From TrEMBL:
Transmembrane segments: none
Keyword list, A-Z: Signal
Species of provenance: Paraferrimonas sedimenticola
GO annotation, cellular component aspect: cytosol
InterPro entries associated with the record: Uncharacterised_CreA
Official protein name in the record: CreA protein
Signal peptide per UniProt: 1-23
Family annotation (PANTHER family): PROTEIN CREA, PTHR37952
Lineage: Bacteria, Pseudomonadati, Pseudomonadota, Gammaproteobacteria, Alteromonadales
Length: 162
């Protein structure tokens, strides 16, 4: 092995360790078996603009690989008050905004969470997705937090389509 390739390998290992150290609140670590280095990690993430919402993200961590698998799951729930002033501060466009990002490899692949406000149905949507295409599609997962019975709930009738 040349000195350059050893240096590159060490740099890659340090970058991977640095990225995993920046994770959120890890709440679970499940081994996938005795003969694998892959684990399921579950992390809690509080929405930075709406602290009354907590999301749990599950994803695979491959300890000895330079890239983690793209599969992930997300579940978000109301865990505190959600107020109208909180909603007024968020991006209310159809594409929403990225509120969480974590690297899944040394090159280009990342896990993102985007929050979208569905005003018509008074629901917050959280989409987790991989930025790298895998077998012809981008891996993604969706969860929603209805605003019903929160301080932010507005009485309005949803008009049925058609």
């Amino acid at each position: 092995m040349t000195r350059c390739s050893i240096g590159t390998l060490l740099l890659a290992a340090m970058a991977t360790l640095g990225l995993t150290a920046c994770s959120n609140d890890e709440v679970a670590d499940v081994s996938l078996g005795l003969f694998t280095t892959k684990d399921i990690k579950v992390e809690a993430f509080v929405d930075p603009d709406i602290p009354g919402v907590t999301c749990h993200i599950s994803h695979i961590k491959a300890n000895l690989n330079l890239a983690d698998p793209s599969d992930m799951g997300i579940a978000c729930r109301q865990t505190g008050p959600i107020t109208a002033p909180m909603l007024a501060k968020i991006d209310q466009s159809k594409s929403g905004e990225v509120i969480f990002k974590a690297s899944k490899s040394i090159l280009f692949k990342s896990l993102k969470i985007r929050r979208i406000y569905d005003q018509t149905h008074q629901t917050l949507l959280y989409i987790s997705y991989s930025t790298k295409e895998v077998q012809g599609s981008h891996k993604h997962s969706l969860t929603s937090v209805p605003l019903y019975n929160t301080e932010a709930w507005k009485s309005q009738q949803v008009q049925p389509a058609g």
